[in-house]
Write a sequence for this structure.
């Protein structure tokens, strides 16, 4: 008899039992008889997890008096080992196994052979199905497969009968046992707590046994066709470009998607009588068990790829294609995903979404840019995350330290709550400064503005008391759109932002896409070959080449600012002619609108981002044409230090308080001094208290930072005597110390200035 036929024979009888009106105990008693007879096994037993212990619930062949009496801990004995490791055991001589434990009340001393499979529900072991035989022999593969299929049906039966102990089930399973700490790369810093929710929710399998095997097979065939089409489309999308690690990933995906062995195993599971969903899950369970035996990290990654594809196939065949966002968040949530797009992130309820953990992700990923604007902590590069966390697990996210704690102990949770409470207390103090103007101790007014990129971000002006929007990233609209945003939509967004800001200024930065912010609808074969996208075809370079793009944005900004002052800033200017070319596009559109009798801006102020170091060498040529300059510290730092900020190995070199960065910034301040141009800084550097202290000492008087940093920076400003910090900075930069950061911390501590 084939494995499929053997399993089908069992399934037919199990189906009858499940459909009957027997109580749960009666069904379990019937199941052990059916399996024992089908496999000609003298013993068949079912253990279920109750109150943290594996309890003998039904048996054929052992002493009946042991039912509900024999109990063992997870990890104890052979049955406990199966549940703990979610693994199959097949032993010719049970007593020879190091984990064997004899239970005299069961009367099992005469049985030699032993085989057992875990009963898995929602990726965790909730019990075990065991067979035993007097003769010492290993069970055949077809018998083991029949057991595994039966265990799947059992999981549905005991779930429907509410025999699964949900609380204690969480304490079993490899990687799901107790507190786990996951390390990753801090993409957006901050603290957050909530329950784990998978961006792609696991599909709930409501029917295990098939009514029509051929119909189930056709459903799987159609799902495979659709999945393969999706993978082929992914591989051909322009945004992936040519070459690189992603091509290897996609090739692996394609290899698995077209793997005949995988599809054959799913077909065999359907032959045994399972529905399409149950067959995919059945094969997936087998894959997970194999993954636990793999020590090679490369092979383990490939198995994760197969798991990812199996989830995709399962969603297609079940029709459950929505993400957790479409289902809505019902509690404070830490979102778990392999990767995430910016548009997908924006679909979530910001009141409930507290943090994000990604298995992949980088500092320059689009979703990180948007998450930073939303003030949502993000941890990336959390390898093997999905093997450690389950839906609903409590998660403490410390993106400051680059860690996430899953299922924390009470002691860990209390310590985190204490730290979180201190953070909230500080935030409450900062919130009280909302209507307080940021004057230094010596009476100098410092401008504190916010960075924004979404329409909803403008509300932060009122919440923080910021002086305006020092950087509105217009590219967000481009990053979250599947096609190039129409000029009318751009106009509507810019007008809404200006109206919401009221009398507070808004500086619009023209679109900064391309390079590491590639969008699929703007393709360039040469740009795809950029070895360092941050220094490639992007920002103003792209906009000047795609003049239609800049022309449309110029007209949208000019129309939206009718009756207002328009502040427009060009990114990544490296030479004066680039600024001239961009301004010429605006001048041309301004003339066009004049001929159409449109309402024009009351005034137009033009500015440039200083993020390419070469611009500092020609500032004398550019300053007469500018109303303001904003130093973009993020890109400027990586260009000056030749340290890619997306590379975690270079994180220690990406230091805003290095002497070279600070000396460069001081020279910029000195070159601008006395000129009729407003100098400011925008970027993460200005939002960090110690770095902001250094910037004040260098002479910066305008900051554009994240909304969350406004309160802390206001509080800092009010404690600073500018003459004192300026003298200190000049001294340190003239006679460099080994560790300027330490010197600055000591200086701040002596003056009771909190630098954290």
């Amino acid at each position: 008899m084939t494995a499929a036929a053997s399993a089908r024979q069992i399934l037919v009888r199990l189906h009858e039992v499940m459909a009957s009106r027997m109580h749960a105990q009666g069904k379990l008693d019937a199941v052990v008889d059916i399996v024992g007879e089908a496999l000609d096994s003298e013993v068949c037993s079912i253990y279920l997890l109750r109150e943290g212990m594996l309890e003998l619930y039904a048996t054929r062949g052992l002493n009946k008096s042991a039912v509900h009496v024999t109990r063992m801990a997870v990890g104890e004995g052979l049955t406990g080992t199966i549940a703990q490791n979610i693994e199959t055991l097949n032993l010719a001589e049970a007593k020879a196994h190091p984990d064997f434990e004899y239970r005299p009340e069961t009367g099992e001393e005469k049985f030699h052979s032993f085989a057992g499979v875990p009963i898995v529900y929602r990726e965790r072991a909730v019990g075990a199905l065991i067979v035993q035989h007097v003769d010492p022999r290993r069970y055949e593969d077809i018998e083991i497969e029949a057991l595994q299929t039966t265990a799947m049906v059992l999981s549905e039966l005991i779930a429907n009968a509410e025999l699964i102990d949900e609380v204690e089930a969480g304490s079993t399973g490899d990687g799901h046992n107790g507190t786990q700490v996951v390390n990753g790369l801090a993409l957006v810093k901050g603290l957050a707590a909530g329950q784990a929710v998978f961006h792609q929710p696991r599909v709930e399998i409501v029917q295990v046994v098939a009514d029509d095997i051929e119909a189930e097979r056709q459903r799987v065939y159609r799902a495979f066709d659709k999945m393969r089409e999706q993978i082929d489309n992914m591989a051909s999308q322009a945004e992936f470009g040519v070459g690189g690690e992603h091509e290897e990933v996609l090739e692996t995906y394609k290899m698995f998607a077209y793997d005949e062995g995988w599809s054959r195993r799913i077909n065999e599971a359907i032959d045994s009588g399972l529905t399409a969903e149950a067959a995919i899950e059945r094969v997936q369970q087998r894959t997970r068990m194999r993954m636990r035996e793999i020590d090679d990290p490369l092979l383990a990654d490939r198995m994760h790829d197969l798991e990812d594809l199996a989830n995709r196939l399962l969603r297609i065949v079940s029709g459950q294609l929505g993400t957790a966002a479409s289902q809505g968040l019902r509690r404070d949530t830490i979102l778990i995903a392999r990767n995430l797009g910016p548009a997908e992130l924006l679909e979530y309820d910001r009141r409930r979404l507290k943090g994000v953990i990604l298995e992949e992700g980088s500092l320059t990923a689009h979703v990180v840019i948007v998450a930073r604007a939303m003030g949502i902590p993000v941890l990336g590069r959390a390898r093997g995350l999905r093997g450690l966390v389950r839906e609903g697990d409590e998660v403490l996210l410390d993106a400051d330290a680059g860690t996430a704690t899953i299922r924390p102990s009470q002691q860990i949770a209390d310590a985190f709550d204490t730290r979180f409470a201190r953070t909230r207390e500080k935030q409450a103090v900062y919130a009280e400064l909302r209507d307080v103007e940021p004057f230094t101790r010596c009476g100098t007014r410092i401008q504190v503005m916010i960075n924004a990129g979404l329409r909803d971000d403008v509300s932060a002006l009122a919440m923080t008391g910021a002086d305006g929007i020092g950087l509105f990233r217009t590219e967000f609209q481009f990053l979250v759109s599947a096609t190039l945003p129409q000029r009318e939509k751009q106009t509507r967004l810019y007008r809404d932002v200006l109206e919401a800001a009221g009398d507070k200024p808004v500086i619009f930065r023209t679109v900064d896409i391309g390079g590491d912010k590639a969008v699929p609808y703007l393709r360039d074969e040469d740009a795809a070959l950029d070895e360092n996208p941050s220094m490639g075809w992007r920002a103003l370079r792209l906009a000047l080449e795609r003049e239609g793009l800049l022309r449309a944005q110029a007209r949208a900004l000019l129309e939206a600012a009718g009756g207002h002052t328009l502040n427009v800033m060009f990114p990544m200017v490296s030479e004066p002619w680039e600024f001239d070319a961009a301004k010429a596009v605006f001048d041309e559109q301004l003339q066009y609108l004049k001929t159409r009798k449109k309402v024009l801006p009351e005034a137009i102020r033009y500015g440039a981002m200083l993020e390419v170091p070469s611009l500092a060498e020609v500032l004398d040529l550019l300053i007469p044409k500018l109303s303001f300059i904003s130093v973009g510290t993020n890109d400027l730092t990586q260009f000056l230090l030749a340290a890619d900020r997306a590379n975690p190995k270079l994180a220690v070199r990406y230091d805003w308080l290095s002497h070279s960065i600070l000396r460069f910034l001081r020279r910029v301040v000195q070159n601008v001094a006395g000129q009729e141009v407003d100098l400011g800084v925008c970027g993460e550097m200005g939002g960090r208290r110690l770095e902001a202290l250094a910037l004040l000492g260098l002479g910066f008087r305008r900051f554009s930072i994240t909304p969350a940093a406004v309160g802390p920076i206001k509080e800092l400003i009010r404690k600073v005597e500018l003459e004192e910090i300026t003298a200190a900075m000049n001294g340190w930069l003239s006679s460099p110390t080994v560790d300027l950061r330490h010197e600055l911390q000591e200086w701040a501590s002596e003056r009771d200035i909190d630098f954290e």
The mean pLDDT is 83.
